[in-house]
Target: F-box domain-containing protein
Amino acid sequence: MSNYVLGTYWEHMVRCHGNRPIAMTTNHMFPICSLCNISVPPTRLSVLAGSNPGHNTPSAQVSVGSRQHRLTMELPLPDELIGSIVDHLDVPSLLRCMQVCKLFYSIISESAHLIYKIELFASHMEDNEYSSMETVNRLNLLREYNRKWNDLEWTSSGSIPMTNGCWELSGGILAQVIHRNTLSLVQLPCKLKDIPERRWSVPFDFRICDFTLDNSQDLVVLLELVGTFPPNVSCNIHLRTLSGEQHPRAAETQITYTSTSLHATLSFMIQICGNRVAVLFYDQLFFELDTLSTNPFLVWNWQTGQQELVICSHSRDYILRLHDRGSDLATIIRSDSGPALQILRASAQVDPILPLEETPCVCELQLPRVQGDVEWLLVRSEPTPTWKPPTGSGVPFYASRKDYIFSVSIRAIVDEMDGNAVLFIPLSTLLLEVERSHDVPRRNVPWDAWGPDRTRIISMQPSETWICYTYGMKFIQHVPWNNGYAAQVYDFNPYAARKHVKTTVDSLLPWKHLAEESKPAGWCEGFCSSEQEQVVTRLPGRVATIALAHSNNSQDAAMIGEDNIVIVQVAYLKL
Model:
């Protein structure tokens, strides 16, 4: 058996079968796994993976005809080559490989590159391939970064004056509109990642109605309404860089949208995802009056200017989240059977203008019912699925995009009480349901079949100040605390929830386990399952509370980014 074949043979053993006994066959020079539905030649090799972890080398049992021989098989490969082979494994397989024998354990545990790969996975981070930092230094920095998050220890703090204009926190940049036509931006610092604080302003020659940004693409999308009274109102969607120049990858300086339904009091939700920009136009006034106004949701390719999709919904329908996995689109629907989360197929259509009910639907996930009147539903998740650190930033690692939480905020009136709750749904939960729906058109999934074990619902303090309360697997809210206020941080990274929590009374860690299961109390008791039973959710996580000595204003709110926690007050912003 050649060295290469031997390497791929052990790789297959660990990747596909973990520590289970594996029957391998040899066909000429190549081993074939009998569990993979391949014909078995007369000569058979049975490998017991991890059967004797005390040995320095893997053990094997060879059977030829009726005779059996026990032998120890030395791997004729240098340690460096074995390390290169196992580097192709994912982290769970790599961890199982460490249990096969002392040799594999030693090779992996002594490799800074492989340990860095494992700790990135556990930290829910991704490596920045463009960073010039040495692997050992990245590993040490990652450990220090995690320690400071686990201890909630800050390296710096500061204050930023705020106005009553539009705000946005994205990619570590806090931006706000001042004087109606100027964008004021602050790059929030992070000493560990060597990100300095930077402040600058960009004036424009039009009034900014709303905006969003993606610093990984050096892109700012700004909305301008032209005209006052319908039907003579249009919306200009300006595509600029963070320095205010025309974006070099945009074919046009702006995209213009015209509709007879546009008017000066519209509100907007904007999202950038790769080469797409999506805008939801909705009428807050008509929404509050519970009318059936039409809310158009449009998707453009901002680089070509081509309009790819228009979905028309009513004031009780909410288009929520665009992402790049198979061109799917998430939306929440108010329906007769109660709130539901729909996953729509949103690829470009031949006729792009569709009513919501005719948009191809992958599946519909029922949400808990509310024994009352739902006022609104809103979904947040950050960062966008295509976000990466800007080229040249040099940061060694950043939040993983492989999984993150959607926070579904629900405001309702139950027994004449107005309250808020938030439901946390990991992306992995949604993708699992999408995978299960490929062969079932418009699959409808009851709440009890998908939600209780893979989501978590909590009561939420109402806030009109800001909605950037989710980033990656973390969530933050501003809560009353000991005659003052505190920031309460939730973390749904499963590894951190198991390892880095307070386990004894005298532990100094600020994090605590979430209860194994939560049954919403108080206002949230108005939620019930499809069987009219109280909602119970069990998504694992941890929570920490940060007392805010300066905070005594109930109008405060909290925001969270990858490297920062931000407290918003009426007159200024506290870092």
